[in-house]
Amino acid sequence: MNPILLLIPVAIHALVTLAIYAPMSMARLRTIREGKVKARVYKLNRDEPEESLRWSNAIRNQNETAALFYAACVTAYVTNGGSFLTALLAWGFLVAKLAHLAVHVSSNDLRLRRPLFSLAYVLLILLWLVVLFHLVSGL
Questions:
Q1: Is the alpha carbon torsion for 102, 108, 111, 114 positive or negative?
Q2: Would you call 58 exposed, middle or buried from its count of C-beta atoms within 10 A (0-12, 13-18, 19+)?
Q3: How far, in Å, CA of 119 to CA of 56, rounded?
Q4: What is the pLDDT along the chain (139 residues), one digit of tens a residue?
Q5: Cβ–Cβ under 8 Å, residues 64 and 109
Q6: Which of 57, 81, 96, 128 is 20 to 30 A distant from 136 in Cα terms?
Q7: Closest alpha carbon to 125 in 102, 81, 78, 92
Q8: Domains plus CATH for the chain?
């Protein structure tokens, strides 16, 4: 397996997470322009309107597990632990997080969002278990 296949999901996830800032900023500016809130609301994000809050919540959610995902992939990569299984888990995590993001910023239906979050969570745990097994087996 080409170990780069392990890093591509990291790059895609990072770029998608960065891209979410644009619609969040546009939604915030729109709420200020339309007089729905004063700009100071965004100083501490208190009383943020739902139309921009969904974007800031989506960003927060993408970042909550990102460091663990990136660390697992990079650890596997630098220790030659990249395998078909680690790549499959990384790509699965990415797809689950992208689907979760799509639900989060559209319908925000918890019946859809929660299982997608749970799937990504389980895939991340499995990824770390595989990485840990690789590390321990190298001792």
A1: positive
A2: buried
A3: 22
A4: 899 999 999 999 999 999 999 999 999 999 999 999 999 999 888 889 999 999 999 999 999 999 999 999 999 999 999 999 999 999 999 999 999 999 999 999 999 999 999 999 999 999 999 999 999 998 8
A5: no
A6: 96
A7: 92
A8: 4-137 (1.20.120.550)
Return the structure tokens found at 5: 């296949």
CB 100 within 8 A of CB 116: yes
Alpha-carbon span 32 to 15, nearest angstrom: 27
| Residue appearing with tokens 């309107």 | 49
Shortest CA distance to 131 belongs to which of 72, 69, 71?
72
**Residue labelled with tokens 């909550």:** 64
**9-46 burial code (b ≥16 CB/10 A, e <16):** bbeebeeebeebeebbeebbeebbeeeeeeeebbeeee
| Amino acid, res. 72 | A
From CA 72, how far away is CA 124, in angstroms rounded? Answer: 8
